[in-house]
Amino acid sequence: MPEKFTNVTSITEFLLMRFPDDKVLQRLCAMLFFLIYLAALIGNLLIITLTTIDQHLQSPMYFFLKNLSFIDICYISVTVPKSIIKSLINIHSISFLGCASQVFFVIFLAGTEIFLLLVMSYDRYAAICQPLHYETIMNRYACVQMVIISWFSGCVYGSLHVAGKFTAHFCGTIIVHQLFCDIPSLLMVSCSRNNILEYILIIVSCCFAFLCFISMVVSYVYIFTTVLRIPYAKSRFKIFSTCLPHLTVVTLFLFSGFIAYLLSYSLLPPSLNPVIYSLRNRDMKVALNNIFGGKMIPNFILQYFK
Question: What is 96-116 written as a DSSP string?
Answer without folding.
Answer: HHHHHHHHHHHHHHHHHHHHH
